[in-house]
Amino acid sequence: MQGLIESASGILSASERRLETVSNNVSNISTPGFKRQISFEEVLSGRESADALRHRSDLAQGQLSRTGNPLDLAISGPGFFRLRSGDEILYSRQGQFRVGAEGAVVNSSGQILQQAGGGDLVLERAAVEILEDGTVLDGERPVGRIGVYVAGDPAALRPLGGSTFAASEDAMEDAPAAALRQGMVEASNVVLGDEMVTMMATVRQAEGGARLVQVYDDLLGRAISTFGGNR
Amino acid sequence: MNGAFHIAAIGLEAQQRALDTIANNISNVNTPAFKRSGVRFSEMLATRADPAVVRSDLGDGAVSPAGVTADTLFMLEEAGKLEATGRPYDLAIDGQGFIEVMGAAGETLLWRGGGLKVGEDGLLATAKGLPLKAAITVPDDATTIEIGADGVVRAKVGEAEPVEIGQIMLVKADDGAALQRRDGGFYRAEEGARLLDAQPGEDGVGLLVQGSIEGSNVELTAEMVQLMMVQRSYAANAQIVQAADQLMGLANSLKR
Question: Do B236 and A37 touch (CB under 8 A)?
Answer without folding.
Answer: no
